[in-house]
Amino acid sequence: MSALFVTGTGTDIGKSFVTCGIVAELRRRLRPVAALKPLASGFDESACAESDPGRLLTALGRDLGRAELDRISPWRFRAPLAPDLAAKREGKSVDFAAVVKFCRDAIAPAIDGPGDLLIEGVGGVMSPIAEKHMVLDWIAELGIPVLLVSGSYLGAQSHALTALAALRGRRLALRAVVVCESPESGLTLADTAQSLVRFIRGTELLALPRLASWNAPHETFSRLADGFNLSAAARA
């Protein structure tokens, strides 16, 4: 039915939380759903359940074994750095073409079949992932709609608008912007959302307060699940 790429304005702003929340909502609706986190930095195998791939597997209702990890997140690196640098620490490199092919192989069944697919990126829109490629290049190669996740901290507006400009500059289809409430922020969630909405043309903006769990039903997750299809995405 559809595929969606979840990206963000930076790291640790809520991409995984939002992705898991959408997965949980789709599963509550008994809709077939798959999710990928192809690139993962800062991965500690001894704490797999707390990692982004581990959380995605939990949201999907799958076990945390090596086979399942390899299935959704084949490029995992220990250092909490951009993937290209994290890979270099281990004497490896990220093959951009292989990452794109891995995703495309998953997208085709989602588009042609009954299931939905979410692909979670890494870092921010402009984060390097390979020697000559950024997350933005990755999204452009896949050509699927994008969900942009931002925080509500001081400076989040500038980061979000910069990311939006980059996405629009490549004429990528933007599904929505989700503003996640940042901890200990000097701004309220409403402050950030109201500031951003003035500059976002024709794109839905959703505000997500801090929740105890991504598994808690919320109108933001419900709204995103409602519009989880290619036709709902507007060209930037």
Top keywords for this entry?
alpha/beta, 236 residues, Rossmann fold, 19% strand, seven-stranded mixed sheet, disordered C terminus, 39% helix
Structural shape: globular
Strand count: 11
List the secondary-structure elements in sequence, H or E. Answer: EHEEHHEHHEEEHEHEHEHE
Query: N- to C-terminal separation?
Result: 21 Å
- What's the structural domain tally? 1
User: How big a fraction of the residues is strand?
Assistant: 15-25%
Mean pLDDT: 92
Q: Class by helix and strand content? A: alpha/beta
Radius of gyration from CA coordinates: 16 Å
Q: Could you state the CATH homologous superfamily?
A: P-loop containing nucleotide triphosphate hydrolases
CATH-defined fold name? Rossmann fold
The level of helicity is 25-40%
Number of helices: 9
**In this structure, how is the largest beta sheet organized?**
7 strands, mixed
Report the uncertain regions.
230-236
CATH class: Alpha Beta
The CATH architecture can be given as 3-Layer(aba) Sandwich
Task: Provide a descriptive summary of the structure in words.
It is globular and about 45 Å long. The protein is α/β, with parallel strands linked by helices. It has one domain: 3-Layer(aba) Sandwich (Rossmann fold), CATH 3.40.50.300.
